[in-house]
Design a protein that fits this description.
single chain, 355 residues, Rossmann fold, 6-stranded parallel β-sheet, 14 helices, Glycosyltransferase, transferase, Glyco_trans_4-like_N
Length: 355
């Protein structure tokens, strides 16, 4: 088949998914063109690309690209939903997609249900799969020492290191994380607050930095990073505090990397990813997040007894946040629980076929 894959500008999960799908389709022998299209130029750009390549299917990703594809062409149109609408405009885009797309794919089952409620006739689940982690660039102690040095932490600072990964946007709700750290600071003093690194870039950077500076929190905004796998290997605690996610790639990567303590909010498809192996928190709950961080970062935390300890914690680890140990082998075979690349490709190919 000749397939046109369309997405808006994205450096996050949608971009990774489209890259994976492009590679898989080409390896399976299909002719694939990709298009990054946004704004008022999206509709004519999609129409031109579909005609030029004489495509059989236009597969768009996201609400804006999906709506534009539905308006741009009469070719078979498949739209993958990666996020739920956050406002009235998004609701209108979803309604248009539900009415006009030949097939709507949801990256999590709640998105499938949402598309059905908006009137879509053919809706299916299509997993978004995180690619395998690249091999580490250095030894695990060196990776830990490197990141801690980058954050200005001295060799005598034994506090566990907390990492969050994701765009600096409202969806990720880093404000709740900063509030949780402020609660810890007020209750336990500056030494009771773990150092936090946030990898990602976005429109909330200035606002978040202002809060960090005003409250004197030990939080570093790392910006966009190409070494996420190594950052995860260097972290002792991973936090995902989003108000909504489908199948977050960063969470999949953290679990694969064997981060000792994983803290996540019970939103969207997160429970599907964690499969009951990780205690989940309600969104927007800074008190619950502060308590989960306190337990994960406690110097005498026992992973066997702590209900908030991550699924891959090492019961033999020294009580120092694991600064000297390599990450424990994963106690859960996550790839056996999750859909894989073959499932990701099969879902797309099935949607491309006319009944």
């Amino acid at each position: 088949m000749r397939v046109l894959l369309v997405r808006a500008e994205s450096s996050g999960g949608i971009g990774v998914h489209v890259d994976n799908l492009t590679r898989g389709l080409r390896e399976a022998g299909h002719d694939v063109d990709t298009l990054v299209a946004g704004g008022t130029a999206a509709i004519p750009a999609i129409r031109h690309a579909a005609r030029r390549s004489a495509v059989d299917v236009v597969h768009a990703h996201g609400l804006r690209a999906g709506a534009a594809a539905c308006l741009a062409t009469r070719k078979r149109t498949v739209v993958t939903l990666h996020n739920a609408p956050s406002n009235r405009a998004g609701e209108l885009l979803l309604r248009l997609i539900a009415q006009r797309a030949d097939v709507v794919l949801g990256a999590s089952h709640d998105l499938v249900d949402l598309a059905v409620r908006h009137g879509a006739a053919d809706v299916r689940f299509a997993p978004v799969v995180a690619p395998a982690l690249p091999p580490p660039r250095d030894t695990f102690p060196a990776l830990k020492a490197g990141l801690r040095g980058e954050l200005g932490l001295g060799p005598d600072d034994r506090r566990p290191l907390v990492l969050a990964v994701g765009r600096l946007a409202l969806q990720k709700d880093y404000d709740t994380l900063l509030t949780a750290l402020t609660i810890m600071q007020d209750r336990y003093g500056a030494d009771g607050v773990p150092p936090v690194a946030i990898a990602g870039e976005g429109p909330r950077r200035a606002a978040l930095q202002a809060v960090i500076d005003r409250r004197r929190l030990p939080v570093t905004l790392l910006g966009h990073r190409a070494d996420i796998a190594d950052l995860l290997r260097a972290a002792d605690v991973f936090v995902l505090c989003s108000v909504w996610e489908a199948r977050p790639l960063a969470l999949q990567e953290a679990l694969r990397a064997g981060v000792r303590h994983v803290i996540a909010t019970d939103v969207g498809g997160v429970a599907e990813v964690t499969a009951g192996r990780v205690p989940l928190l309600p969104a927007h709950d800074s008190e619950a997040l502060a308590e989960a961080l306190r337990r994960a970062c406690a110097p005498d935390a026992d992973p066997d007894a702590d209900p908030d300890a991550g699924p891959d914690a090492d019961p033999d680890a020294e009580p120092d946040g694991g600064l000297e140990q390599d990450p424990a082998p994963s106690a859960t075979d996550w790839d056996a629980l999750w859909p894989g690349p073959a499932d990701e490709l099969a879902a797309a190919l099935d949607a491309y076929q006319r009944s």
